[in-house]
């Protein structure tokens, strides 16, 4: 009999990637039935999943009652939490993560796969204390470990789509694409094609549960510097680029409100001590390849996306 996996963020990038990968995988699609969670079952993204045979269930991570119902009967769970952007001081993401962890404990979930990140405050030795969307995820990870839910932590890298969809690479009036960062052109960004590859790392965790329980899997194809990112962008798209290193105040002025400080410190962290605190990606990508998956390179991502630029 197939097991049930409940996927949070089913209508979003990460959960959507997990569902697509399972559906496309010959063995996982036999091993698992999928339940996708959304706050609004009527939205088109939820309806599209229902048409592919995914059970769609309404739940809100802020409601413990809805979570108990959502997790009922689940063998495995994929959990992605999202920050309460624009609401400075909010601990909503931490509360959401703990709520799901508690529900997983209560319902006897066998494998919780959490989309985690590092604790910036700790890894920077207390120098960078304004990156709650990292710190909260690390605290959720710590909480999951402390209550003893069998779990694996998949830490997504910096999204490639940040450059093409979220507008970090900005086209100027002269047609040149500008990348302005508060870090140098040699800083190391671990890039991931999130919509395509998050599912591959999670599928790898599902396929090697007993080997990966308690460990962190780093979900990124490779480390890329801004110089490398722009050089390949030029080669693939034929468009001109320019890198500008700006000072902290100038960078913050691009992003109003508390998010400016948060994104500034997030990028300073990437430069020093590093997005994954200097850890190599080799072990995670070797595991991925062992299970038949290949991570998408920045060049491959650009080839796919260049038509929409
Ligand atoms: N940008 C980067 O480079 C980067 C790097 C690493 C990690 N991240 C992290 O990635 C996360 C975003 O992932 P994503 O891009 O997959 O998100 P996304 O596409 O924005 O989707 C968010 C999902 O979360 C669900 N959701 C939100 N609030 C919920 C709640 N209260 N209860 C239940 N479900 C809820 C939404 O479902 P419904 O709306 O259907 O309810 C939606 O499916 C963020 O935490 C971010 O910090 C980003």
TrEMBL record:
Q: Which keywords are on file for this protein? A: NADP
Domain NmrA-like, residue spans:
1-302
Family per UniProt? Belongs to the NmrA-type oxidoreductase family.
Q: Which SUPFAM superfamilies match?
A: NAD(P)-binding Rossmann-fold domains
Quote the protein name from its UniProt record. NmrA-like domain-containing protein
> GO CC: one term?
nucleus
